[in-house]
Amino acid sequence: ASADNGPSCPGSLIVVSNRQPYRHEYEDEPDPAQMSDPADRDGDPPAGTDGGTQTGTQRSITVDEPTGGLTAGLDPVVQATDGTWIAWGDGDADFAVTDDRNCVAVPPDEEAYTLRRLDLSEEAVDSYYYGFSNRVLWPLCHGFPDLIEDRTDDFEWYRTVNEQFADAVSEHADDDSVIWLQDYHFALAPRMIRESVPDSATVAHFWHIPWPTPETFQHCPAGGHILEGLLGNDLLGFHIDRYVDQFLQCVNRFLPSATVDFAHRTVRYDGRTTRVVATPMGVDAESYDRDARSTDPDRLSALFEEYGIPENTKIGLGLDRLDYSKGIPERLAALERFFERNPDWRGEFTFIQKATPSRTEIETYERYGEQVRNEVQRINRRFETADWQPIVYTEDVLPHEDICALYRHADVMVVSPLIDGMNLVAQEYVAASVDGDSALLLSDRTGAHERLGSHALTIDPTDTDGVAAQLEHALSLSAYERQWRMNTLRQRVFDGDIESWMETQFDWIRRIHDGSRTTESQ
Ligand code: GDG
């Protein structure tokens, strides 16, 4: 099945993700649980309220369109295969429900596929999502073992929720199914699924965050279970080679009965083979390019007025979830150093930091947010003048058009994570830099650096002097060098966009899927 000649999946597709691709909101029944964590995984900020409004029942229902790159990219593929998408989300039994399992037909007007929503209890969400997923696996995989909070029962809830998802998958799967799980919320489910679906079905998984070294992974509570769970997959994907290698090293070290073939990147365990691949994820480059080109100058002026940015200053931009992996305080320190060293740029350069609060239920995140806000305030007090602030800080969730306008207008973008699985923002910025007249400072600790490093301006995010110097360099590059660098970056981002990423995934899945069917018929 193919979506408008786009990527095609070799079987009927069942996607499993934590977030749902469409969210139904009921006017008289707001859903705080789903709204509390705006720009979480896969970059899904709360969608605008401009989705379709349905009045299938007495109540008015707003349907949010898919927003993040992955959801927006996968949606047409699932539509084309008449597939199923299984995600966390409550739902209302009386709206467009196709059966008693909390399934709805989406998109609202076309009803092309089934969205199955798993309604998780508050306790389950607290333990599976805010607990084991985000207090253990997230810090572990990002190399912050000191931040792991191993709370009683979190792992048991993680297992229970993984079981719920696995049970849901097996209810929808047949012998031609391709089951594609997304991310670290589902490390145990692959094995459970593998044991309950037909042998000829294919189980694949993409892990969107880094995979740590064995030295870090040894701090993982229930680490053996996590590895065993993931080896239930036929295919396991990471963004870059380093994460693949580190995963294989962890299996080799912590699961002695597994046989790791480092050269072919396969693991033989419990009678089955898992192939591990590096497939770096891209963005919908065309849509960022198109929307940046149609930027409304009045809208941008209004935004600048709202933020008190004087006309004609050069603009720097940072855009991240408020997450300790993103290196925001380090970036602020480099900005302070930059203004210290370059008094001429005071009043001439404004840095816009757009930070989206995330996982605020977790104290570490709450504290991180406070630290960032305090630092911004301190630096602003130090350098501000009557009509200029060095850093304009906002936690507003901006519509896609505004993001594209800012990307296009910014002279320099600073992407400085301490570690990041990929980082889509860097690629979006490049895709939206349609004038080719800007520069990207990119941390060498991001997956994105593997594909863009040589033409971005590389930074070590912890080197305050180095980042300040690169910023100075970026602002003084010749027009020729800016154009040349940006045009090369644009080529890479367009060549490796979200569609080509999905094609690569499905090519791998096809090989495995066809292989298992051939073996079965022999
Ligand atoms: C994880 C991994 C990996 C942010 N604020 C707004 C907004 N955003 C969008 C950006 C971008 C997304 O959020 C953030 O994506 P990132 O990739 O930068 O970061 P994570 O959220 O940490 O994503 C990461 C990714 O998964 C995919 O595998 O690259 O390494 O950590 O798309 O544009 N969008 C809008 N308004 C906002 O205010 N519209």
How does this structure look, described?
The structure is a single chain. The chain is an alpha/beta fold and 522 residues long. Helices cover 43% and strands 18% of the residues. The chain is built from 18 helices and 20 strands. It has helices at 32-35, 69-80, 122-141, 154-172, 189-196, 214-217, 223-230, 241-254, 285-293, 297-306, 328-341, 363-383, 400-409, 424-432, 447-452, 464-476, 479-495, 498-521, and strands at 12-17, 23-26, 52-54, 61-64, 84-88, 97-99, 103-106, 113-118, 177-182, 202-206, 235-238, 259-261, 266-269, 272-278, 314-321, 349-356, 391-394, 412-415, 439-443, 457-459. An eleven-stranded mixed beta sheet has the order 6-7-8-5-1-9-10-11-14-13-12, with helices on both faces. It has a six-stranded parallel beta sheet with strand order 17-16-15-18-19-20, sandwiched between helices. Strand 19 (439-443), helix 15 (447-452) and strand 20 form a beta-alpha-beta unit. Helix 4 packs parallel to helix 5 and helix 9 packs across helix 13. The longest helix has 24 residues, at 498-521. It starts with 11 loop residues before the first strand and ends with a helix. Residues 29-39 and 41-58 have low confidence and may be disordered. GDP-alpha-D-glucose (GDG) binds next to strand 15, helix 13 and helix 14.
